[in-house]
Amino acid sequence: VLLAVSSIAISYYSQSGLGSILLMVVASVLPWLLPVWPGVALLVLCELVIIPVYVQGLGFTWGEAILQATLYVGFTGFAYVTGLVARQQTRAREEQRRLNAELRATRALLAESVRVNERTRISRELHDLLGHHLTALSLNLEVANHLVDGQAREHVTQAHTLAKLLLSDVREAVSRLRADDAIDMRATLLPLAGNVPGLAIDMDMPRVFMLDDPERAHVLLRCTQEIITNAVRHADATRLRLHYHDDGRVVSLDAWDDGKGAEMATAGNGLLGMRERLAAHGGSLQVETSPGKGFSVRLRLPLDDGIALPPAAGNAAVAAVSSRAASRTTIAVEAS
User: Fold this and answer.
1) Which of 12, 155, 195, 316 is 20 to 30 A from 290 in CA distance terms?
2) How far apart are alpha carbons 120 and 69 in whole angstroms?
3) For this UniProt entry, which segments traverse the membrane (predicted)?
4) Which residues pair with 104 in a beta bridge?
5) 139 within some domain
């Protein structure tokens, strides 16, 4: 509005048509500042207001002034459409970058899940097939040890000992495979913080952040994606902080943004989806907001079905959890 008024004022005081040219410049930037219909209404209003300027300042007749304004309506309309197309293309590129970040995070989770499933399959096959046959071989050699005498018995005893050592090695290998079948959440979540236009994301998580359950890892990934999406689309935030904590029983995520906030948190499809995902595993979700103070989200996800969470306070503010430098790391990704 200030730009439009300034353009008309310049045209009035300079007694020239410079204001109409400046209105074309205003039209090119309006799509970045106002929604479509308010922007169009402002441009039409400016062209109507500048008609008396033509009459009084330039000595046009009313017919000439209306014709001149109509001519400039076409120019300003073209400039406005050009700016509108440029804004839409920029937003499309930003959305594509955000979706690419989510795709990379999902791909990382899929790769981790495939790795875990393959290790689990190999360990199961070693235990069920090779372990079973080695156990049967050891028992048969023990029986044979009681049925033979002399030098043959010495060889049978040696074979029995080797079979037991091999069975022990197989069991140790199975234990190692199963001990390393957790999903690395750092590798899964970090891609989400990159290439988010207009938003600087600070991720604070344990240096070793592993989850055994692929389904819970998927829930945590989707909830993080939804929090980032809401901060970009609805909160108009420029900075988002994500704090992850794992105490071995419950994984918690505290999120804060510096957006515009709201009078109350309205549960849309995104928040409802988060609640449903968490509720399926006994988790909980709290959302706090107030005008001008952004949104804060706290979610808790039990790592075992037998863990019951205490009831959450309804109006309690989400508290910040302090981090320890020895066991945590902070990843700050600035908006590009």
Assistant:
1) 195
2) 75
3) 12-33, 40-59, 65-86
4) none
5) yes
The answer to whether the CB of 299 falls within 8 A of the CB of 285 is yes
Specify whether 323 is located in the same domain as 242: yes
Residues 116, 121, 124, 130, CA torsion sign: negative
Domain match, 46 and 120 both: no
**Domain match, 164 and 229 both:** no
Per-residue pLDDT tens over the stretch 140-189: 877 887 777 777 877 778 887 877 777 777 777 766 666 566 788 888 88
Which domain-ending residue is among 179, 203, 221?
A: 179
Count structural domains, the chain.
3
Distances (CA, A) of 200 to 49, 155, 330: 43, 70, 13
pLDDT for the residue 11: 63
Q: How far apart are CA 211 and CA 113, in angstroms?
A: 11
What does the chain come to in residues?
A: 336
User: Does the pLDDT of residue 313 top 60, yes or no?
Assistant: no
150 & 124 share domain: yes
Tell which wins on pLDDT, 115 or 246. 246
Q: How far out from the chain centre does Cα 280 lie?
A: 21
Residue 100 lies in a domain: no
- 217 with 327, same domain? yes
Which DSSP category does 129 fall into? I
Q: Summarize pLDDT for 250-270 with one digit per residue, the tens.
A: 999 999 998 888 777 676 777
d(CA 65, CA 56): 10
Burial 177-187 (b: 16+ CB within 10 A, else e): beeebbbbbbe
Q: Which has the closest alpha carbon to 258: 231, 285, 229?
A: 231
DSSP-assigned letter for residue 309: P
Q: The pTM is what?
A: 0.55
Q: Is 40 exposed, middle or buried (0-12, 13-18, 19+ CB in 10 A)?
A: middle
Q: Give the domain extent around 161.
A: 116-179
Taking the CA atoms of residue 86, residue 87, residue 92 and residue 95 in that order, the dihedral angle to the nearest 10 degrees is 150
Among 88-92, 123-127, 248-252, the least confident range: 123-127
Angle made by CA atoms 302, 308, 312, in degrees to the nearest 5: 90
